[in-house]
Amino acid sequence: MYLVFCYGTLRSGESNHAVIKGATLIESFSWTNGQLYDTRDGYPALIKNEDANVYGEVYEVDDQLLEKINLLQGYQEGRDHNLYEQVMQMIESDRGSYEAITYIMRKPEKRFIEIPGGDWATYRNSKK
Question: Are strands 44-47 and 2-6 parallel, antiparallel or unpaired?
Answer without folding.
Answer: unpaired
